[in-house]
Design goal:
Helix 1 runs parallel beside helix 4 and helix 6 packs antiparallel against helix 7. The model has no long low-confidence stretch (mean pLDDT 93). The chain folds into two domains: 97 residues, no CATH class; 344 residues, NAD(P)-binding Rossmann-like Domain (Rossmann fold). Helix content is 48%, strand content 14%. A hairpin with a 2-residue loop joins strand 5 and strand 6.
């Protein structure tokens, strides 16, 4: 682990190191124990967690579907385990994580400064796509085409259609949106500012980052209020807060925001830092909800499509039909499956499943990535079960910087269209996700009959749920085709 301070993994008593493997394995086992003791024991016995983690994360989803209330129990147990295990480390040693968000007068408070945009609010929903900006009937047609292609769930088109029908919903002046990870490519910041929203923006204290965010804000219609350190330097040099290392100060800054707020979690980091920053956000969230009251706080999350989800029977039926009729079934499937021992071009589902289990995990992303994303899903499930307002949306596969810097994944994305998968450009994806956030805030995001249906509602999975083939069984071929087309 590169930095031993702030939000950290616990010390492993056996090795004396901060082991992400030991923690991840134990948390998954703890989450499963109450509803699937056999699965919990299997996770605890896993000797090669970095390579063998996937079946255990899949089991978390399967066990959550099997019995009513199981998903909520898994979420609560997983969150409890993480908060009990993760630590707050200073030069004086490790302490419980809740110490970080407790009042500490020795930690300087962060001030606030606001930057206001000079543009006029846009009251028409428009989404950039293929070199155009689609709105009105053109946007409705694009949504219909995505549904017809199996790129998004029908509920996604319905939700965005409601925002098109109600342009006044874009006026979010009744609520401050707290954007954690303000500079994230998949975040809603620029859309919210274009619509004239007041945003509380938090990201790392980096001058280059804030120079760009401040410049963008001035050109748009909304405002950003940012945490600042005292001093006489320009705002960009004083703005920002480090959630992993300055968790208490950032938490108190967010808790002090007046009026109803929506806390949006858009943070991302590489490797084990992703779990640390996600835990920091979760600790902040718990503290702010306790301070402000549940009725005053909505939570927002974006889920990665490269995870395991329970999916509607209609998506399974579409996939089964596609498997039966794709041209590759006659040209490539049989010989490729034969030479690969059945590993390539496998069915996405067993026919007739409802719900089906879609496993689109990219193994190279690793167990820490999946644990960080699962933590966010658990918080969404638990908060909704407690009566809180939650916007949780599966975002489409997108050509973000974090994806394209991985050459193998970038190549796979370049060839994904050969298998019915649409990979989105960042501007299209983040605007679509911002529109879904508006829908959920305005409609109250009514709870679905089960937790898995809450996660599936409004999903924009890019076709991973409806594709003919298990995504990992086609990933290598997609990468080869992507490299060939690039050349």
């Amino acid at each position: 682990m590169s930095d031993p301070r702030g939000v950290v993994f616990p010390l492993d008593p056996t090795s004396g190191r901060r082991s992400t493997t030991a923690t991840g394995r134990a948390v998954v086992a703890d989450a499963l124990r109450g509803v699937d003791p056999v699965g919990a024991a299997s996770a605890e016995r896993e000797t090669n967690w970095r390579q063998g983690y996937l079946p255990h994360f899949r089991r978390l989803v399967e066990a959550g579907v099997a019995v009513p209330g199981a998903a909520q129990a898994i979420a609560t147990s997983g969150l409890d385990s993480l908060h009990a295990r993760m630590r707050w480390a200073t030069d004086d040693g490790d302490r419980p994580l809740e110490v970080a968000v407790a009042a500490d007068e020795s930690v300087p408070a962060l001030g606030s400064e606001t930057v206001r945009g000079e543009g006029a609010p846009d009251r028409t929903l428009s989404v950039p796509y293929a070199g155009e900006r689609l709105s009105g009937d053109a946007l409705r047609r694009r949504l219909e085409l995505w549904v017809e292609a199996g790129t998004v769930e029908p509920t996604c088109a319905e939700a965005v259609g409601l925002v098109i029908d109600n342009p006044d919903w874009l006026d979010l002046s009744d609520r401050t949106v707290v954007v954690l990870g303000a500079a994230a490519e998949m975040g809603p910041l620029r859309s919210l500012l274009r619509w004239g929203a007041d945003v509380a923006a938090v990201d790392l204290p980096r001058k280059d980052l804030w120079d760009k965010l401040i410049g963008d804000t001035r050109r748009l219609a909304g405002s950003i209020t940012v945490p600042v350190r005292p001093g006489g330097e320009p705002l960009a040099a004083r703005a920002g807060g480090d959630l992993v290392h300055d968790l208490g100060a950032v938490t108190r800054w967010v808790a002090a925001i007046d009026g109803p707020i929506a806390i949006g979690n858009y943070v991302y980091a590489d490797g084990e830092t992703n779990v640390r920053v996600s835990m920091a956000v979760d600790s902040l969230t718990r503290a702010v909800v306790e301070a402000k009251g549940r009725d005053d706080v909505a939570l927002a999350f974006l889920a990665t499509p490269t995870d395991v989800f329970a999916v509607p029977g209609a998506a399974v039926e579409r996939s089964v039909d596609s498997y039966a009729h794709r041209r590759t079934s006659k040209v490539l499937r049989v010989p490729l499956r034969t030479v690969s021992g059945g590993r390539l071009l496998r069915r996405n589902y067993v026919p007739g499943q409802d719900p089906g289990i879609n496993d689109s995990v990219v193994l190279q992303q690793g167990p820490n990535y999946l644990l960080a994303k699962r933590l966010q899903r658990w918080r969404a499930t638990a908060y909704r079960a407690d009566g809180g307002l939650v916007s949780f949306k599966v975002a489409p596969p997108t050509r973000t910087r974090s994806v394209v810097k991985n050459r193998a994944l970038a190549a796979a994305y370049a060839g994904a269209h050969r298998f019915g998968i649409e990979v989105f450009e960042p501007g299209t994806a983040n605007t679509l996700m911002a529109a879904l956030l508006v829908h959920d805030l305005r409609t109250g995001s009514p709870a679905q009959p089960t937790a898995w249906q809450d996660e599936a509602y409004g999903a924009a999975h890019g076709g991973l749920w409806t594709a003919a083939y298990d995504p990992r069984s086609a990933l290598g071929i997609a990468a080869l085709l992507g490299v060939a087309s690039a050349r």
